[in-house]
C-alpha cells in the first residue's frame, strides 16, 4: 500500500510521509527511501535495505504498521501480543519493556535482545492514540548504532496525528474516498445488486482496519452524521464493516468488504477491502 | 458555557424527544470535560464508545469550550 504523499519540508530539508488512512505523519531524511510492504511502511537508507541477504552497514530500517483497536484493548495486552509475535519470529530470548509516551499517544517500548549469533540490534514499540495503534520496529547492524539510532529517534519523534488532512477526494454524494481506490461496476463486488443505479463501488487494496480509521476520521469532517457503525472484526456476524451515514435527507450505507488477496482462506483485520456505497 | 450535543443510535433514549443526530444545547460549568457532559446526560460510561468534538475524535477527559459541538456514539453491532 503506498497511500502516502511526499512533500519537501523546507525548514529541515527532510521529507514528510503522510499516511492518509491511519492519519499520521513522519518526517525522515531526504535520502531515505519509503517502501510499502504488505500492510506496513518501511523506511530505509538504501534501496535494498529490506533485503534479508543484504549485509551492508547501512542495512538499517524503520517499519511502521497500523492496527485498528475499536475494542479499545488496553496497551498491555496489545504489547504482549506484539512482543510475543516478534519473539516467536526472531527467537529473542530477553525482553525488557518500558513506558513510552509521544505527544498524546501512549505505549510501551523495548530493546529486544537477539540471539548472540545475530549481529542485528532490534528496538520495538507500540503507541496508542484513540482507536489507532502504531507498531514500530527499528533494526540495524550493531556497528551502525551510533550513526542510525539518533536519526531513527528523530524520525519517530516527528510523529504527528494531524486532525485534518486536506485534498481528500469525495464521491458524487460527498463521501470521502481513500486514495488509490478506483470506481468499478457495483456488480463486480456485489453480484446480487438489483438496483445498480443506487450503488457505487470502489476497488482497492487498503486493509479494512486502515479503512475504518480513515472513514471514522473523515466522515464527520465531511459533515456526515454517523448513525450506526458495525466494525470488523467484531462479534457481529456481518462479515464486513458497515457505517450508516446521514446528511439532511440523504442516507448512505457504506460497506467495507474484505477479501482474501493472498489465497490463504482467512480474512483478518489486515485483509484488503473494497468499498460499496448504497444511496437511499 | 453552552455546548451543542448530538446523540446517535441507542443513546437517543437519554434525551426525551430526540432522534439520531438531532442537536440540542446543554449548559455546563466552565472547565468541564467530556465525561462531565456524559454524567450530566446520565449516560452510563460503558454505553459511550466514541466522542467527536467539532468532528474530531477525542477522549472523555478532553476539555470542552463554549460553542463546541459534541457527538456521542455508542458501541454498536458488537463493537
Quick tags:
heterodimer; A: 280 residues; Protein Transport Mog1p, Chain A; TATA-Binding Protein; 2 domains; 7-stranded antiparallel sheet; 6-stranded antiparallel sheet; 3 helices; 16 strands; disordered N terminus; B: 79 residues; Ubiquitin-like (UB roll); 5-stranded mixed sheet
Protein described:
The complex is a heterodimer of chains A (280) and B (79). Helices cover 15% and strands 40% of the residues of chain A. With 280 residues, chain A is α+β, with helices and mostly antiparallel strands. Chain A has two domains: 4-157, Protein Transport Mog1p, Chain A (3-Layer(aba) Sandwich); 182-279, TATA-Binding Protein, CATH 3.30.310. In chain A, 38% of the residues are buried. Chain B has one domain (2-73): Beta-grasp domain (Ubiquitin-like (UB roll), Roll). Chain B has one helix and five strands. In chain B, a hairpin with a 2-residue loop joins strand 3 and strand 4 (56-58).
Topology readout:
The complex is a heterodimer of chains A (about 280) and B (about 80).
Chain A: E1 4-9, E2 14-19, E3 24-29, E4 33-37, E5 40-44, E6 61-68, H1 75-90, E7 94-102, E8 105-113, E9 120-129, E10 132-141, H2 145-157, E11 182-184, E12 199-203, H3 208-221, E13 225-230, E14 241-247, E15 250-258, E16 273-279
Antiparallel strand pairs in A: 1-2, 2-3, 4-5, 5-6, 6-10, 7-8, 8-9, 9-10, 11-12, 12-16, 13-14, 14-15, 15-16
Chain B: E1 2-7, E2 24-27, H1 34-40, E3 50-53, E4 56-58, E5 69-73
Query: What are the segments of chain A in which pLDDT stays under 50 over at least 5 consecutive residues?
Result: 1-11
Query: At the third CATH level, what is the topology name of chain B?
Result: Ubiquitin-like (UB roll)
- Please state the second-level CATH architecture of chain B: Roll
Coarse morphology of chain A = elongated
Structural class of chain A: alpha+beta
**β-strand amount of chain B:** 25-35%
Order of helices and strands of chain B: EEHEEE
Biggest sheet overview of chain B: 5 strands, mixed
Count of helical stretches of chain B: 1
CATH fourth-tier homologous superfamily of the largest domain in chain A: Mog1/PsbP, alpha/beta/alpha sandwich
Instruction: Provide the gyration radius of chain B in Å.
Output: 11 Å
* Helix share bin of chain B: under 10%
- CATH overall fold name of the largest domain in chain A: Protein Transport Mog1p, Chain A
The CATH homologous superfamily of chain B is termed Beta-grasp domain
